[in-house]
Amino acid sequence: SPPHEQPTTTSKSSMSLLTTLMETCATLSQKVAELEQDNYSQALEILQLKKRVKKLEKKMRSKSSGFKRLKRVEAIDADEGHTLIKLKAKKAKLLNEQIAQKLHDEEVQKAVARDKQEKDDMERAQVRQK
Q1: What is the model's pLDDT at position 1?
Q2: Over 70: is that where the pLDDT of 31 sits?
Q3: Up-side HSE of residue 109: CA atoms within 13 Å toward CB?
Q4: Which of 21-30, 39-48, 59-68 shows the lowest per-residue confidence on average (mean pLDDT)?
Q5: Is the pLDDT of residue 44 over 70?
Q6: What proportion of the chain, given as a percentage, has pLDDT over 70?
Q7: What does R_g of the chain's alpha carbons equal in angstroms?
Q8: Averaged pLDDT, 75-91
Q9: pTM of this prediction?
Q10: What DSSP character marks residue 65?
């Protein structure tokens, strides 16, 4: 009788491990997809900003109406640059918060799943004892 119980326990632990590994794989695959999307979005944003810089540089070169105008444009560009830096910092903070929330949610889901599994295991053990 004991040799018969051994494979069942091993089988259960193997299935539990397999399930955990599959969940981890799915979670990591989702994170990779999200990071790839973020990377694509950031690359697109960089291209748009480079295009805007070229446009502004061309505009600055074409408008040569004096030193005063140049000073005003430089001041505006500096303000835009400062604002852009602030916006990027806010975006990065928001992204970090979103990632932290996703990770938290995943941990909560895993804890709930573990609790349910333990409860189910306990119920099965109680049924077997009867």
Answers
A1: 44
A2: yes
A3: 10
A4: 59-68
A5: yes
A6: 83
A7: 29
A8: 78
A9: 0.36
A10: S
The residue behind tokens 């009788």 is 1
Which among 84, 92, 94 is positioned nearest to 52, based on CA atoms? 84
- Give the C-alpha distances (Å, rounded to integers) separating 124 from 10, 118, 121, 128: 16, 10, 5, 6
CB 60 within 8 A of CB 73: yes
Q: Which two tokens stand for residue 108?
A: 């909560």
Q: How far is CA 6 from CA 11, 30, 68, in A?
A: 8, 36, 87
Q: How many secondary structure helices (H) and strands (E) does the chain include?
A: 2, 0
Whole-number Å distance between alpha carbons of 76 and 82: 10
Q: Are 30 and 38 in contact (CB under 8 A)?
A: no
Token pair 């999200």 in the structure block, residue: 34
| Side chain identity, residue 42 | Q
The set of residues, in sequence order, having a beta carbon less than 8 Å from that of 60 and lying 6+ positions away, is: 70, 73
Distances (CA, A) of 119 to 6, 25, 83, 114, 115: 22, 24, 53, 8, 6
At residue 64 the predicted structure's pLDDT band, cuts being 50, 70 and 90, is low
